[in-house]
Design a protein that fits this description.
Layout: E1 3-8, H1 11-24, E2 33-38, H2 43-50, E3 54-60, H3 66-76, E4 79-86, H4 92-98, E5 103-106, H5 112-120, H6 126-138, H7 149-163, H8 169-180, H9 189-211, E6 213-215, E7 219-224, H10 226-231, H11 236-247, E8 250-257, E9 260-267, H12 272-283, E10 286-289, E11 293-298, H13 303-319
Parallel strand pairs: 1-2, 1-3, 3-4, 4-5, 7-8
Antiparallel strand pairs: 6-7, 8-9, 9-11, 10-11
Helix pairs in contact: 1-5, 1-6, 1-8, 2-3, 5-6, 6-7, 7-9, 9-11, 12-13
Bound molecules: manganese (II) ion.
Manganese (II) ion (MN) binds at residues 8, 10, 12-13, 61.
Amino acid sequence: MSVLVVFHGDCDGIIAAYLYIKRYLKDLYPSGLTLAVTHPWRAHTDIKRLATGGNELIILDIALSERLVNILENASSRYKKVIFVDHHATSESLIKKLEPKIKVLYSKVTSTPRLLAQFIGTPLNPYEDVLVEVADICEGKTPYSGIDKSALDIVDSIRMSIAFDPGDLGFMKHLIDLMMKSKNPSQDPLVRLRTRRAKFLLENLLRILSEDSLDADKVKMAFLNLPLSRAFAGLIGVAATELSKAYRKSVILIREEQDKIVVTIRSTHRDALNISQLIANSLGGVYGGHAEASSITIGREPLSKVVNSIIDKVLKPEISKP
Ligand SMILES: [Mn+2]
């Protein structure tokens, strides 16, 4: 029996992989499973390459795109069973295209583990319960007052240790393994080392971003050129979230990459998708995510053109609001 589990390489994606494996594939763990990590912007190419055929293909916490729908339809003929599990708002309109051939678990809840928890039926044990809460907080939910500080330590250590290198499958497997053994990730030496290193980098990144940003009433815009965006690759999403919380604004972080411009948006007042849409209307590009967090990928354009257009379309209207 060959089973491929592809998951999003972020906090709720990894917890989703753990919970799914624990509840449905425990007997096959670890040697009977192939685990693979991906990110929404490259999921279609990764899955096309990896999904060569077998018994089951499981996709967890990956926002759908038209291209991904096509790849999954193709892959479905090579597997006995394909299961797609996701919570992203932007997947909603594409779900029905998948459904005839692929088993879909979809609901617009805070995180993919929360969706799994609702689907599982039998109650979660306390350890699983904490991790589902951790996933929700990683995805932007405000922790309930009186939450155990150790849960917040887990949020911090999972988020930061992954951000240190979000493509490192070996480390993600290490995290999943800790969870399968019901260990506390925030107490693990390797997790702690990576968390410390990531925090050091994050402090520097936040300083760079705040020193060079533009502010409107409820919006803050910041930029990274190609060398900086490479240097801080995994930390950009976390930094945008931190800035948004610190300033209580929607943060628009524009960065240059090798052959594209990527805009990361975080919003404490649930404006991320609106802003993505405004940007896509004027510059084109593909966006995905939800009200608190989204990103948009634009083709090869000069950073200055993108920045100016976002100033015109998003920041200026914001400033002139009564
Ligand atoms: Mn995710």
